[in-house]
Amino acid sequence: MPDADGFDEFYRDTRQRLLGVVYVLTGNLAEAQDAVQEAYIRAWQRWSTVCRYDDPEAWVRVVASRIAVSRWRSLRSRARAYLRHGADESVPGPGTDTLEVVAALRQLPEEQRVAIALYYLLGMPVAEVARETDAPVGTVKARLSRGRAALAGLLKVVELEDAADA
Length: 166
Prior knowledge:
single chain, mainly alpha, Rna Polymerase Sigma Factor, Chain: A, Arc Repressor Mutant, subunit A, about 80% helix
């Protein structure tokens, strides 16, 4: 178990200085906070070794700086890719029918919702849905049947035979 008291004292004594340095490097307080937090996590994980260094603060500062630079490089690479390939085609939002179906699905019990999603959206056979949900095949069939009936009621679906009789 690392020396928690020693680490806590180290953290209290150094956190503001490190945050200031990394903030100056990044120019973004949130990014600096994330990088410094990650560096302290790594220091805590190795505290039994880091605490014996001549200057543990320097170790954390280097780690935080590298994390910040790595994130900056990643963002820069994404920006270059965006400039090279352009923005993704805009995808239209879901239609009202989709929103109604999703709202109705949310009202179903979780087991029915999962069975319906796996069977109808992913096209899994009933046996595979049973394996995935760790339920007997008969239970999956019952969940699908009850789920369809509940959805029909929630969506006010009129069966074709009823519509032909009207």
